[in-house]
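Lecture notes, continued. The same structure-token format from the folding unit now serves as the input rather than the output. Read the line below as a description of shape only.
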């Protein structure tokens, strides 16, 4: 079976037919499925979509025990933002992802900037973009995401061909990896952006 555009989070089952792994959707299985929007809803109270999956949380005053929200007077007193759990008789507030941490008050969750703490892992030609509770890797400026050789990769944008350079009318555009250079044509002098 050959899938011309590939199956990012799935398997190629027939000519251009992808079978997506659980939690993913789309023709090439490249989109995250928002399980929280499904009917019937997968969670009893609160649902948070995550990449390829989801997490359930309970309203204040309830605790997630074996997948169901159970009333908990002690949990109600703690007043957690995303519900809580009981660990060895102690009530602990929860955060929905590893990219969040409990704030100083022990009840609300604050974002961890994985990009500035160095926890994020992005390949050399990608830059880190922080999001609430997570991060993603985006192509560096001068590169664009393209599908080639059965995978997605950041490839150099040829600014000279796409005409996105700022070279002077009397200058030549020279493409470089991730950028471009301008050189004044013969008979002209300047830095390539200004030629006289």
């Amino acid at each position: 079976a050959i899938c011309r555009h590939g199956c990012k989070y799935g398997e190629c089952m027939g000519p251009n037919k992808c079978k997506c792994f659980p939690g993913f959707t789309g023709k090439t299985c490249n989109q995250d499925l928002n399980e929280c929007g499904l009917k019937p809803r997968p969670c009893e109270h609160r649902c948070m979509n995550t990449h390829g999956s989801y997490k359930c949380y309970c309203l204040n005053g309830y605790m997630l025990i074996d997948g169901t929200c159970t009333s908990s007077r002690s949990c109600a007193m703690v007043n957690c933002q995303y519900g809580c759990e009981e660990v060895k008789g102690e009530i602990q507030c929860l955060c929905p992802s590893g990219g969040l941490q409990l704030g100083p008050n022990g009840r609300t969750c604050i974002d961890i900037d994985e990009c500035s703490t160095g926890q994020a892992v992005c390949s050399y030609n990608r830059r880190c973009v922080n999001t609430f509770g997570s991060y993603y890797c985006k192509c560096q400026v001068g590169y664009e995401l393209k599908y080639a050789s059965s995978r997605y990769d950041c490839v150099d944008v040829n600014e000279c061909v796409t005409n996105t350079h700022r070279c002077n009318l009397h200058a030549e555009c020279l493409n470089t990896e991730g950028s471009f250079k301008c050189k004044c044509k013969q008979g002209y002098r300047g830095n390539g952006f200004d030629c006289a």
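Point for the exam: The first strand starts at residue 10 and ends at 14.
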